[in-house]
Design goal:
This protein is α/β, with parallel strands linked by helices and about 300 residues long. About 45% of the residues lie in helices and about 25% in strands. The protein folds into two domains: about 5-90, Arc Repressor Mutant, subunit A, CATH 1.10.10; about 90-295, D-Maltodextrin-Binding Protein, domain 2 (3-Layer(aba) Sandwich), CATH 3.40.190. The strands form three sheets. Strands 3, 4, 5, 6, 7, 10, 11 and 12 form an eight-stranded mixed sheet that branches. Helix 8 (about 200-210) links the parallel strand 8 and strand 9 (about 215-220). Helix 1 packs across helix 3 (about 30-45) and helix 2 packs across helix 3.
Length: about 300
């Protein structure tokens, strides 16, 4: 049976009038009458009483109303899912992220997301913290994986607190310590990493009133920083995520006091984001939580 006939029945019962129901449904009154007569023939018994007082359900029709309402709600859900699937075929998610996130998180996130949404493409831009938030403001990306910054208005979804570590030459004189005091960076030749770290590191130094000797002309990528520290050209700070899977000949110690960069997803508006963008963020939360033991 066509759901349109059941919808017409519910509308007639709701409004108590074939005339008003026909107007709402965009039908003629005779067309609606014909549709109801056909429905009653299909079910084999009368559903509606029609007299000068209007339209009301028969006793049998009254008993059917809850099931008919459930049928219409299920049909609306089905149509919504079909519409969502059709819209996904035309969707493209534009993502910006740091190099470490592109390496360690996004491959797994995108792989699992594609299993569920094979028709949605994901484009990735890798950039510095300034670039990532600028692209977000300019509408060039739909969402950004980054450390939380005061970079304008956006909605924020936290993912993980990424511990910051002191990066020291292998022969750095430390003694029996398992943490590196942030004040000890004072006056040291400091190699500033690029692509997302400078603002996070400066925040750590400012909180402790520390002034290292920052080489402004050595803001390079993470691998170069590690090589330069290994060769005794200075000290630096990187994060646990950046060091994951690497085996460089450097010493990496947690900071004292501890410090982290707060990694998450920035999106112009969660409320206005498309359904697949919201789904992508949910996949990211779940997968990052699993990768880092639910932390």
């Amino acid at each position: 049976m066509e759901t349109k006939k059941w919808e017409a029945m519910l509308t007639a019962v709701e409004l108590g009038s074939f005339t008003r129901a026909a107007e709402r449904l965009g039908l003629t009154q005779s067309g609606l009458t014909h549709m109801m007569n056909a429905l009653e023939r299909e079910v084999g018994f009368p559903l509606l009483l029609r007299d000068r007082h209007g339209v009301r359900p028969t006793a049998a029709g009254e008993r059917l109303l809850p099931a008919v309402q459930e049928l219409m709600e299920a049909n609306r859900r089905l149509e919504g899912q079909i519409a969502a699937q059709n819209s996904q075929k035309r969707e493209n998610i534009r993502v910006a992220a740091y190099s470490s996130i592109c390496m360690h998180w996004l491959p797994t996130i995108i792989q699992q997301f594609r299993w569920a949404y094979p028709d949605v493409s994901v484009d990735i831009r890798m950039g510095s913290v300034a670039e990532i938030f600028r692209w977000l403001r300019e509408g060039k990306v739909d969402l950004s994986f980054a450390s939380r910054q005061d970079q304008g208005r956006y909605d924020w979804v936290p993912l993980w607190d990424d511990p910051l570590l002191a990066i020291l030459p292998p022969d750095y004189p430390l003694g029996p310590v398992d943490r590196f005091p942030v004040p000890a960076f004072g006056g040291k030749e400091f190699l500033m990493p690029s692509l997302g770290f400078d603002l996070d590191i400066l925040e750590v130094f400012e909180a402790q009133g520390v002034r290292p000797d920052i080489r402004s002309n050595t803001a390079v990528e993470d691998a170069a920083i590690l090589s330069m520290v290994e060769h005794g050209l200075g000290v630096s700070i990187l994060s646990q995520l950046v060091l994951q899977g690497r085996h460089d000949n450097v010493r990496a110690l947690p900071l004292d006091p501890p410090a982290s960069r707060h990694i998450g997803v920035a999106v112009p508006s969660l409320k206005e984001a498309t359904p697949v963008v919201r789904q992508f963020i949910q996949y990211s939360q779940r997968i990052v939580g699993a990768l880092h033991g639910g932390r």
